[in-house]
Structure formats: structure tokens, C-alpha cells
Amino acid sequence: MKKIVIVLILLMFVSTHLQAKDDVKWLDGIVAxxxxxxxxxxxxxxxxxxxxxxxxxxxxxLPAMSLLKKQVLERMILTSLQYNLAERTGIRIDDVTLxxxxxxxxxxxxxxxREFHDVLTQDGIDFGDFREEIRKELTLVRLRQREVDNRILxxxxxxxxxxxxxxxxxxxxxxxxxxxxxxxxxxGVSPEQLKVSQRKAAQLVQQLREGSDFSEMAIxxxxxxxxxDGGDWGWRKLGELPRxxxxxxxxxxxxxxxGLIRSPSGFHIIKLAEKRSLxxxxxxxxxxxxxxxxxxxxxxxxxxxxxxxxxxxxERIVNGEDFAEIAKSRSDDxxxxxxxxxxxxxxPGVMVPEFEExxxxxxxxxISPVFQSRFGWHIVQVLEHRDYDNTEELxxxxxxxxxxxxxxxxxxxxxxxxxxxxxxVELKNQGTSK
Length: 434
Known about the structure:
This protein folds into three domains: 2-147, Orthogonal Bundle (Triger factor/SurA peptide-binding fold); 172-280 and 395-427, Chitinase A, domain 3, CATH 3.10.50; 284-389, Chitinase A, domain 3. It is of the alpha+beta class. Helix content is 49%, strand content 18%.
């Protein structure tokens, strides 16, 4: 269980606050000035120690320490720029949100908060440091949502085109696991800079094709967001890949390393690590057509009286009065009341647990006893059951999600590049970059 928690932390948050070895003495010297902020040698060493432990835990080969240190420092610079922008523009994570997030992490690992605290302590992670690291991560998520995610619009035509591609394009019935290296280019790159970057990227391709470890090279050289994961993008369908990759990957065999792929972000190199066939199974669910009446108590004092009122309404329905007419005039759920209490065809898991539990007990035509949820007092009647094939609906939802993920990733990379290019960054003893 302890390993599950730590792997979750490392993979979700990459930035760790592991305690340094006792024999390491941190220096307080400044290694980088980032706009109005600084990164100290101690902070860099602490972050570097955490990344090394993560890579060792994953049995990942380590690149030269100078290259890894450079890579980690660049990630810290990008994080500093984002966090400072979030602070300047008023993004704040309150303690309630933070505590709920940490509680959810503990719950996912089947631990209480106390147990979770103890596990972190046993593994050398200060709980206070961990808590603030989560606050920073949540801040960056909100910043990305505002600056990138919320600006991406996926149209119905986009979804239709995606699904058509999946069905007709060569390789559309496969999933691919890619590894990726990005040699980033600044905006307004000069011809000379372009030649230098292209030459370096071409050398990487040659080394990879001659047998160099792709993960190690990604950790050392890639500017991609998955660099410290060895460039591993995980499993993706063809439509989830950038278009420029999709056209190439269908022609690759497992183990192949691509040539240079140019995009607005820079030069890319991909390796097809694995591929597998997609399942073509249909998805059939059990639906219920239902209607209900809701009575909301006005306050705590009204709790018992509101239940009695609904009991009397139920009795009238059982004695022959029309459910729909009573729902229209007496239900406190405005959305369904105008439809005679109708909820339409209800999918499993849509309703709150108390409501779902009562529906599960009912045969067609049966009316539930009065029961309570956080919304108030209910009665529900199940009119009909059916098996429903919702495969196409799920495909639509999955397609929209996949398209947005792809577009967000592409735009996020460009946004980070602009943020970095527009910042003042001075690497101490290494000159100044802009």
C-alpha cells in the first residue's frame, strides 16, 4: 500500500519534497533568477534528489548528472513562471479545497488522513511540504484551465470527423504507445538557431537508431511535458495523437524511431514502443424509465412535516389519483414537475446513491416508500426497464474528450514556450537568457 501511495504522488506531482540524505549539505546560493523570483541551489538539489529517487524506483537509467540537473532546473523555471503568473492574476486555492483534495488522495489509497500522514512521514515526506506542493499543483491546474483549456472549443463536426477517421483511416483500429522527444524552438527563431537545433536533433535520431536508450535521452534532452517520464505518452488512439504524428506512426513498426518531425513547437522525435488492437465490443446498459416527486423541507423544523406531506401524497396516488398531475402541482423539483415528474430513461449511476438504491428495489409500475436524500424527501416510480446499447453515445463522449486533450496539449506546449520566451531568466555563472 505504501508503494501505491508514493507512486501516485510521484506520478501525479513529479515535484517531490523528499528529505535529502543526511550527508548532503545544501547551499543557499542562487542558481537562477526568474523575473522577480529566484531558485536556490538548495531548492534545485532537493528537487533533483526527488527526481533521482523516482527514476531509480522506476528502474530507469539515469543520464549524465549535468544533463539531468539542467533538465530539472528548466522544469523549475517553467513552474516558477506559471506559479507567479497565477499569483499575480489572483488564482488562490483555499484550505477547504486543499483539504478535500488531500482527503480524496488518501481515500483513493484506502487510508484515513491520519494513516496517510503516517505513510508519508515513514517515507521521508514532510506532510506540511506535501500539502503546500498539492496547493501549488492545484494552482497550476487552474491556471492551465484558464489560459488554455477553456479556450479550446470542440465542435460536433470535429467529433464526426474524428469518428470517421477512426473507422476508415489505416491504423484507426489500433492503439499506440509512443515515446517522444521535443527539441523546442523559441518564437522568432533565427536561421542560425534553427540550423543548430536541427543538427542537434538529427544527432539524437542517429544515436537512438544506433541503440541509445530512448527514455534516458528523453530525460536528458526533451523539452516535452513527459520528459521526466522518459517521454512516455502512454496508450493513445490514432485520433488522440497530433495530426503530424498520426500520419507517420501508422507507417512505423514497433521499435522504430522516426526522423525529425517539425511543428510550431520545434523538432519532434517519436518511437513506437507498442501497439495493440482496439476492442470492438458493444456497451449495453440497463435503463429505467422513472418519475418522482420531491418535497423540500423549508428548514430543520419542517423536516418531519414535509415527510408527512409526501406520505399523504403517496397514499393518494396508491388510491388511484394520477401521479403526473400530483407531481405537476406539488413536486419541488421544477425540472421534472412540468413533465409530471418524469426523469426519462435513467442510466445507472446518474442519480445520487439513495435514489439509485430505491430504484433498484422496484419492479415496473411499483412506487417506492418515502425516502430521503440531500435534496429532500422523495417517492419514485419505475415505469419500465430496458437494455440499451449506448456504444455510439460513449464513442461521441470519448471522441470529444480525445480531441480536446490533443488540442490542449498542443496549445499548452506553445503557451509554455511563449511564457518562457517573454520572461527574464538569468542562469548564474552561465550568462543571461531571455
